[in-house]
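Researcher: Let's do a round of design. I'm pasting the structure tokens now; please hold your answer until I've finished.
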């Protein structure tokens, strides 16, 4: 079986399959979205700083909206015009980052 090119668009069944392992994420059109509520504003920024490190490792960056302690993440591969394996991989990495902050401050 040929290896999946991370820039190939995922079809609906591939997106649905990926979302089974990403329960905090939802598909909205050609994007994946997740909302996170941190304890406070400094906590939200610490999460965002760690997200930036993971995004740089993949050279794939989320769109992020910060509203005090709420973070709204949107993932899409603009150059491909939709959701690719890069988006699902970044979503997995973001879940790990967010989880580490949640466990550390629970």
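Researcher: That's everything. Go ahead.
Model: Designed sequence:
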């Amino acid at each position: 079986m040929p290896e999946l090119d991370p820039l190939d668009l995922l079809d609906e069944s591939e997106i649905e399959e990926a979302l089974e392992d990403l329960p905090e994420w939802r598909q909205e059109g050609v994007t994946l979205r997740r909302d996170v509520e941190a304890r406070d504003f400094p906590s939200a920024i610490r999460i965002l700083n760690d997200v930036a490190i993971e995004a740089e490792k993949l050279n794939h960056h989320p769109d992020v909206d910060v509203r005090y302690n709420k973070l709204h993440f949107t993932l899409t591969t603009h150059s491909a015009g939709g959701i690719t394996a890069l988006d699902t991989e970044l979503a997995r990495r973001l879940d790990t980052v967010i989880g580490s902050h949640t466990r550390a401050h629970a």
